[in-house]
Amino acid sequence: MDDFHIRQGEWYCEQVPVSRLAKTYGTPLYVYSQNTILSHFFKIMHAFAAANPLICYSVKANSNLSILRLLAAQGAGLDIVSQGELIRGLEAGVTPERIVYAGVGKTETEIAAALRAGILMFNVESEPEARLLNQVAQRLRKTARVALRINPDVDAKTHQYITTGKKESKFGLSIPLAMGLFRAIRRMRHLKAVGVHMHIGSQITSSTPYIQAIQRLRKVVEDLRRAGFDIAYFNLGGGLGIIYNEERPQTADAFAQAVLPLITPLQCRLILEPGRFIVGNAGILITQVQYVKRGHVKSFAVVDAGMNDLIRPSLYNAYHQIVPVQGRPGRNTVLTDVVGPICESGDFLGHDRHLPKLNSGDLLAVRSAGAYGMAMASNYNSRVRAAEVMVSGARVRLIRRRETYADLLAPEKEAALK
Ligand SMILES: Cc1ncc(COP(=O)(O)O)c(C=O)c1O
Fold first, then answer.
1. Less Cβ crowding at N or C end of the chain, within 10 Å?
2. Is 268 a catalytic residue?
3. Is the Cβ atom of 16 under 6 angstroms away from ligand 1?
């Protein structure tokens, strides 16, 4: 599953003791295993090899340039949702013809930037977006390749905040609306409809909702072809679930075996947009215990990472395993809430954990924090964002330095000078 393991009572990332990283780079600190990132990427590549898919890593999961470069070097494309993600992708050397652009709120400026860059296609989510895209493409004398994001109205059986394929969701178009927009696109001279796109949610642990959705989209592709559209791409989106605690998600192989027989007969180029599956289990967040408050019913370990560093527990009540970085697990555990320093009761990393008796200075590792961890970090409470390091075997690279207080104040100080 990943390259984090215990050796003689001490957690390691690949061949490097995690405590050494904390000592060198300080805490809170995101630590990634390069080998884990690559092995998850290859798992998807191999599972779908028969279909020769374009794997567009979903930048939003973790947008660090070094991670993008690493995946680009293996031939990955990108799934982006903003101009910032486009800039990151280009900076990391990703070929524009491997970039697909989704999102319900693309602005005119963002559309123009992506057109100028020459991306593979836009995953269009509404009629007004298609009209704006057509206008901008006309102005720039370009033709935009377009897939319509279709909302197949299936329940992905995941957290309501990350389910995206039900009819009440803001994403994509219902099948009838999509069919109407495909017809309208025929009259938009600067758009070329080339594909269908779906993304039904995130942290999905079973193939069933995918199968339901694909069956609906297959019919759409067949109807479009009968109507004379040259549909060359089928984009399945992302959403593959991972193990945070006791989940039993389908493997990439099982997933491929379930969905490929449905898609291959269409003879479309398959696009996948995995994010969490590639980086989720490849990262941990190391934090240091500042204080231990012993209460009447439980203890509170107040640590130096907060909801600004990892918001998933506060936002979705998401579960992350929390383990002491050093020390053999004893029999005597204390019921502990691991909480951050932020002034919100919702600022916690884990509730009611059975942890050994902790002391100030102890290090904890919050596991499976590689996806939607650093990418969602903020400066709330005027806290500077954590550093990130990448481990490969015995080698360690700082891939994002810790922010400084000068970074924190710079935009306001610069504004005051104008
Ligand atoms: C359009 C799209 N594609 C791909 C993804 C990646 O999802 P995941 O990280 O669950 O694979 C997302 C995530 O929200 C998304 O919105």
1. C
2. no
3. no
What fold is seen in the domain 34-277?
Answer: TIM Barrel (3.20.20)
- Ligand 1 atom having least distance to the Cα of 276: 9
Q: Which of 173, 205, 25 is nearest to 104 (CA)?
A: 173
Expressed in angstroms and rounded, the spacing between residue 275 Cα and the centre of ligand 1 is 6
- Integer Cα distance of 264 and 143 in angstroms: 28
Answer for the pair 397, 14: CB distance below 8 angstroms, yes or no: no
Q: Rounded CA gap, 1 and 185, in Å? A: 44
pLDDT tens digits along 208-225: 999 999 999 999 999 999
- Please tell me the class of the 4-32+280-412 domain: mainly beta
- Ligand 1 in contact with 239 (CB < 6 A)? yes
The alpha carbon of 376 and the centre of ligand 1 are apart by a number of angstroms equal to: 14
Query: Would you say the pTM of this structure is higher than 0.85?
Result: yes
Going by C-beta distance under 8 Å and a sequence separation of 6 or more, which residues neighbour residue 335?
A: 297, 298, 299, 352, 353, 354
Cα separation, 58 vs 68, whole angstroms:
10
Question: What does the pLDDT read at residue 16?
Answer: 98
Contact indicator for 102, 79 with CB cutoff of 8 Å: yes
Catalytic residue among 13, 56, 268, 343: 343
Asked if pLDDT for residue 295 goes beyond 90, the answer is: no
Domain ranges, ordered by start, for the chain: 4-32+280-412, 34-277
